[in-house]
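Hello forum,

I keep getting stuck at the same step: I have a sequence, I want structure tokens, and every attempt I make locally crashes halfway through. Rather than fight my setup again tonight, could one of you with a working pipeline run this one for me? It's a single chain of 453 residues.
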Amino acid sequence: MNLHAQLLKRAADGRPLRIGLIGAGKFGSMYLAQVPRTPGIHLVGIADLSPPNAMSNLERVGWEPGRTTATSLDDAMARGTTHVSDDWEALVRHPAIEIIVECTGNPLAAVDHCLAAFRAGKHVVNVTVEADAFCGPLLARKAAEAGVVYSLAYGDQPALICELVDWARACGFPVVAAGRGHKWLPHFCESTPETVWGHYGLTPEQARIGGLNPKMFNSFLDGSKPAIESTAVANATGLAVPDNGLAFPPASVDDIPYVMRPRSEGGQLERKGMVEVISSLETDGRVIPYDIRMGVWVCFEGDTEYIRRCFEEYKVRTDPSGRYACLYKRWHLIGLEVGISVASVGLRRESTGAAIGFEADVIATAKRDLKPGEMLDGEGGYTVWGKLMPAEKSIRQGGLPLGLAHQVKVVRPVARGQSLTWDDVAMDTTSAAYRVRREMESLFAGATKVRAA
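Reply #2:
Ran it on my machine without issues. Output:
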């Protein structure tokens, strides 16, 4: 509870945490908006594919021009300013930088960035949860072997869910379920970048004027992003995942303790100790009042009569039995909150969520019948969506991770709704991301509860 005090002391002592940011897009810009307002932080360098765009975003979020006049990383160090370039390798190599914030959103590039940072002795806050979803357990292990910290990014929903799970467990409450909210109806899984705006209540022209990315927005709508984030949470907490993927049960905030009970007790949860996602829409499409669409939650259990009496005395909202309760946040602030991870990693050497095992996976699943010769277009596209799956089942079936299902050729017919396997595609086996993924599968295959560190 004293991160701010520690940051103030680092500032007073002239020893700020020295940070490098890779990727200055939307998420990175939100973090950049907070950097000038955070004591004890020196953002030494920003690496982006387009330095002019990065500079434009800095201006947009309110940075003073004098903060980015450095001609090199060494110059930035000497002057206390920030260097902007397209050279992420120089950023990772620089000896004074302690923490890399990986914020590209590109899972293949993010794996390269994380591994290089570990080799250079840097801690990593990984915003690109898509990379964590297909090889997070191995990234966490490699970070531990290098003696550095690897962390999910606070402000994004997985780290916030991990925090709620940790709160419940540290209080002594058994965790029944945990997850996020989402706007969901079953047919959304077949949505494409052409159909997405109607579901958001926008016209294509409004989306174009707003500069909105249809593929990115579609990855949320079609269930891919909820599956990705649930995978990261399961691997970081040890919670199990539903055998046949997320069920997206509809519920208001007040009804979460009722709905997230096990089926054997009248709820909709497959069993205790799982991740799940709550829909903000009833099955007929009606909007649920007081929803959890943008938030996170944990359902926990009062497993003694005394604890249940305490729930009643302190007006805790529970299910009818008084046994199950819920703690939640109705919103998350994305990049505006990443500073919590930076401070936790830099000051305490503690992650704000990282894989401890390989519990879950997210597998590319056909949105329509796919023919040999077609190219998969990855998360949020026209061809596949991401389905949450127990890791053991995924490995047994040879499931194709969604994070590696981009610009990959289909080599045999795949029916609509069928999850793809390695044998269904022609993979580029030379990428670091592919090698890391296969190494992880080899390491964890056949093991139960194998720890990442």
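The chain has three domains: 3-156+335-348, 158-184+223-331, 360-440. If your local run keeps crashing, start a new thread with the error log.
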